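Posting here for the record, re: protoporphyrin IX containing FE.
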Amino acid sequence: MVGPLSDRVIRILKSIVFAASLSPVAFLLWDVFTGQLNANPFNAIVRSSGFWSLRFLCLTLAITPLRWLTGWHSVVKFRRMFGLFGFFYATVHTAAYVLFDRLAGLDAWVRARPLIATAHTLSAIGVDLLRPFFAIGLVALVLMAPLAATSTVGMIRRLGGRRWQALHRLAYPAAVASVLHTYWPLTPRAPRYAVILGIVFVLRVGRAYARRRASMARTVQAVG
Ligand code: HEM
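Prediction output follows.
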């Protein structure tokens, strides 16, 4: 079991974790400017930011089971940061898709006319969204948005603990949608992130079941 950390240590650790969480952006920019990305650099940016979003989502959801398993409760202080980085990378990922896949695909004449370019881009995105891969990705992003928007202490107070917790359970469908989007079309391949999230779900459901059984046993004891 790991003991609680002092506020000072938490602050220092948070700065280190924050810098480390931003490092994928730095490495990506380095690769862009040194020409080290693969034959399709734009696709590399879209894929890299997508995978970082998924990694942070997994990390965020793994915090609670990690607390149960290790008894290290201070780790919860990093959960909000991980969740916000998950949303940040999902936003970068979606923006990169709009910029590199859709806007860059327009011909020069259309691109020089902002209104026409916007209409063309929106209609191309609309057509993409008819495909399950894009639609599921958007569902994941839309589910994550209210979580990011209500992640502050002020919002927890405003919503009240119970409502805030209920809202933040949206992280689970968001994770399911993210995994489906990542592995779509669902052909057999090593679904690393699906396995990680599966373990997190099994631990959560197992714990909820054990708690319910314990509470029922207490009730039966009290009655009997
Ligand atoms: C939480 C939200 C999202 C997550 C976690 C996510 C994650 C990912 C991941 C991990 C990949 C790489 C899959 C692979 O190459 O095996 C990917 C690819 C991609 N995603 Fe997302 N995504 C999200 C939302 C979106 C949205 C909203 C869009 C656009 C509407 C989008 C468009 C794309 C595109 C165009 C690719 C590249 C496919 C290719 O390699 O050609 N994603 N996404």
